[in-house]
Design a protein that fits this description.
Layout (H helix, E strand, L loop, with lengths): L7 H50 L15 E5 H6 L7 E2 L6 E2 L2 E8 L6 E10 L2 H4 L12
Amino acid sequence: MKNKGFTLVELLAVIVLLALISLIAIPAIVGVLRDSRIEMTAAQINSVENSARNWLSDADNIQHRPAAGTKDCTIVSLRRLQRDGFADMEVLNIKDEEALEGFVTIKYRLRDGTDTVTDQLTFKFHTALSTARDGCSVGTKEEL
């Protein structure tokens, strides 16, 4: 009578092959997951910046554009964009996937030699108000 089954050497060979495959596959999968989180956050930030663009072009917010001889930027918070109905998303921290409190700095470019604002605006997302304030005059917390 012939014994059916696998020998110990065959089982060990299969285990070694599975270990080698996992050594190759796991880092690749982790890298793909990390890259997808980075891309997701970049897309969220881009969406928030576009929401700030829409918020600024809204007739109710036109007063936030600078007057002649005044500040050359405006700061709007993600919370305000959400409250005013221009944003419905959150920006998640890549590391712990917690929602970030964010601010968008809207910088204006003045026409050469004048105080006239052009339509060349720069939108930049910040996770801290202290970095968003750099070079901008900011209203009260309630205005943000």
